[in-house]
Amino acid sequence: MSIANQLKLTKEGFEALKQELAVLVDEKRPRLVDRLSFARQQGDLNENSDYTNAKEELEFLDGRISELEAVLKTASIVDSHSNHKSDGVAVGTTVTLKVNGDKHVYEIVGEWEADPINKKISHQSPLGQALVGKKVGEKVEVEAPAGKVNYEILAIE
Is the pLDDT higher at 132 or at 2? Predict the structure, then answer.
């Protein structure tokens, strides 16, 4: 993975993924393995829907565990508390925007942390890409489903 394409996470996002991984490995997977073992003891596996379901769930869970392990191993943690004002908008910054006369505050996060409902947007999203590197007072235009939307950067924290 090149530096330019390196996965970025805030410290909070990294810790949340680490916690999710711990829950999957330490709690959910052992319960699922027990369920699979119990279902296996119930006789003919071809007609045992609980065995089939548990096996599929375990495969899905193992896939998620592998995915999280790879992300946590390769991710770059950005310091969301350093002073980014001079560098402009970046992962880990909070940006206040004016759009159509309204103020909106967004946290710029890595793609694994994105949660638009909670105003956390990825630096890889169309708005995130338009904002990264920009400074207070600059304006950006983003193509949205409803047409072009103009944003003005009011503050960066």
Answer: 132
pLDDT the model gives residue 45: 66
pLDDT at 82: 57
Could you tell me the CA-to-CA distances from 42 to 2, 34, 51, 115, 117 in Å, in that order?
50, 13, 9, 42, 44
Complete domains list, the chain, with CATH: 8-77 (1.10.287.180), 81-156 (3.10.50.30)
Give the Å distances, CA to CA, from 85 to 5, 29, 99, 130, 133. 23, 44, 20, 17, 10
The terminus-to-terminus CA distance of the chain in angstroms comes to 29
Residue 76 contacts residue 9 (beta carbons within 8 Å): yes
What is the pLDDT averaged over residues 22-34?
Answer: 96
Cα torsion angle, 35, 37, 42, 45, sign: positive
Q: Residue 59 is encoded by which pair of tokens?
A: 């495969």
pLDDT at 101 over 50: yes
Q: Which residue in 24, 135, 17 sits closest to 87, CA to CA?
A: 135
